[in-house]
Amino acid sequence: MNDKLLTQSQLSASLTDLPPLGMDVLSLVDDFRRYYTHTLGRDRHCRSAHYAYQALVLILRERLLERWKQTRYAYEEADCKQAYYLSLEFLMGRALGNAMLNLGLDENTTLALQCLGMELEELAEAEHDAGLGNGGLGRLAACFLDSCATMQLPVTGYGIHYDYGMFRQEIVGGEQVEEPDHWLRDGNPWEIERPEYTQRVHFGGRTELHRDGAGPLTVRWVDTSDVLAVPYDVPVPGYRNGTVNTLRLWKAAATDEFDLGEFNAGFYPESVAAKNTAEQITLVLYPNDTSENGKELRLRQQYFLASASLQDVLARWVGTHGHDFSRFAEKNVFQLNDTHPSCAVAELMRLLMDEHGLGWDQAWEITSRTMAYTNHTLLPEALEKWPARLFRHLLPRLLEIIFEINARFLAEVARHWPGDTGRLRRMSVIEEGPEPMVRMAYLAIVASSSVNGVAALHSRLLAEGLFRDFYDLWPRKFNNKTNGVTPRRWLAWCNPGLGRLLDETIGVGWEADLDRLHRLLPLVEDGAFRERWRRVKRANKERLARLVAAECGVEFDPQALFDVQVKRIHEYKRQLLNVLHVIHLYDRIKRGDTADWTPRCVLIGGKAAPGYFMAKRIIKLINNVATVINADPEAVPLLKVAFLPNYRVSAMETIAPGTDLSEQISTAGKEASGTGNMKFMMNGAVTIGTLDGANIEIREEVGDENFFLFGLTAEQVEERRHHYDPMAVVAADDELARVLRLLECGHFNQFDPGIFDPIVHSITSPHDPWLTAADFRSYVEAQKRAAAVFRDVEGWTRMSIRNTACSGRFSTDRTMREYNDEIWHLPQVPAKPMA
Ligand code: 26Q
Question: CA torsion 236→241→243→247, rounded to 10°?
């Protein structure tokens, strides 16, 4: 027999079955040199960190790829249920450190680089953040993916491959200037284009009824303008477990079909221009963190994501199960990250009925069993609504389906509450009026088997307030899933000093079992341990001070209290309250009221939506106040203020470990959860905060003696609104009156008279929705308590340790366990072992 030749199946196996790559230092050094010289073509004259970064990525990438394949094989063979996380945002940040850490290569790559005479930190800085998100919601999606891979859950993220992510913020003359974020300028070595899985997405056109012989009446969506969706896959490694899950990002591409009519008529430019319209869909992320109503391009993005992702899942289903959909709902679940991808509800109905021939009832059964919706906001004005007119123009078939869903839903409401027309009007998916609107949250609720909020208070307020009617109808749909953050990025990677201390004291393994941090509690009373804790914090504060010096040109003294508020700039988050306190401290310094002073460095950072006037004016105020205070020799030893430009994921990796006091000061009842609060806590910061969002649960975990609480409760806020009189508050509080006078008299805007008048007006208006003045006094008192404890070095260290020790609950591993136990019901599937 011809034993030299390989059979076809041996050949195809030998094509993809390779011996595992080495994970030892020598293999890494060898591979690095080969990539650097032979793949990237660099030599000893090259001094740029960029190519060294590229070589390092190639090393990690191939080690990810081999595990990625083993994970796919495992999911295929198990033929198990899978979940799909649909999100317009995945705020991934940098991938290098995460890949090193999760592959278990962090020590060996550091050693390999040392052998080659290079510094990891310098290479890591060469990576652009993947800023494909606005803030909390997008970063939450990224943390979820990390935890799902770590828990070996078959979960795929579906998102958009934006050419431009979140804008880069520059501060010019104290004001925000937005610059485009061309994060793909140097290419993205982490992604893999998979044109073989391209999907086609329809827009526009009209619908037609059709009957084939004696068959059922069917609908055709015709005369559409189509756009191709090309997937780019990003690997999502689990923590040292051989699993690599997938984030699939869709990029829009024009179909190659020219508009022949226009082309032949001699309108060549017009026919080519269509290409631009198609590719615009994934050009740029919308930089608003609340809904911006009515923008057609945004609705195109949303439908593009929903349609491409669902077609992808259905194509895989048909590929393995044929056209039998009877078990589809047992095997698939879609988690909607807010209403942004909620077109998916109507799109799944359309695909099942119009493309796969199912009847309404079977399609509805599948849709309503597979959809689950997460809400991230309590602000009624932030609930997404789209004009029905726009829907009809862009997605005519979807609007028909939405009307039918609504008609059947309202019939159910009418059966439940006969004659209650007020309720029908309130609950309708279509808001009636001169411009009828589609209420996306209601569509998502009606079609989902689960509706969840993101912190206990938030979920309760959804049921009692915003979605009350729906809760009355379907109480069992509603549930809470308190957010978390991944302890791999937000502790192990960003705070290696603390990580080492943990390994040496509570033992290894806390990264994937964060409740073990409780083992720190007995060490609180160990003086030598507290000293080691302080040394770690001190080094992290020095690192943060270097960042602030480099980015803001302000010197922070690491001995001082580092008081930090970083998040999107929004009135409800009350950066203004923080500034009022800073001005009050400055006023005390100028009055000589500085006995028992705690020196303090206040850092504020965050982006404002480009069209949000008040948020931008608040940024200007922070910068002006910083300029005045930092230039005053009397203030300098006691108080420093800096605004950090371009706050982003990679900046937070330096900020959280170096923070003493975490500012979580939103008006109670407005912040759905918050997740920055958890990152700070994990890294040993103490929180000053209101009873809002997850702050409540943070305080429950750590105990009220280790949390600086202030302010009205959510209930008190709602009650107070009815008779709110901020001028009376000011009249009764001389220190607040003095702060407002400093603002009014132009002390911080000598050259721009009047620019802060809108801010003074908002604080003193009886209609101020954020009740800033109402919480001023109790905030100042809480700040005084914090300052006093900080002077008691041992007392503060105890609080700091207790905060880390009690942060285990805020790991997204816990959050994902709850999603899985109560909503998804996925098996844990380990990757196939490597040969
Ligand atoms: C919608 C339509 C059109 C344009 C933009 C948008 C849009 C985009 C982003 C609306 C909202 C967002 C982002 C919201 C967000 O980040 N919410 C935060 O979610 C976190 C994770 O659950 C919570 O911790 C925060 O409390 C919540 O504010």
Answer: -10
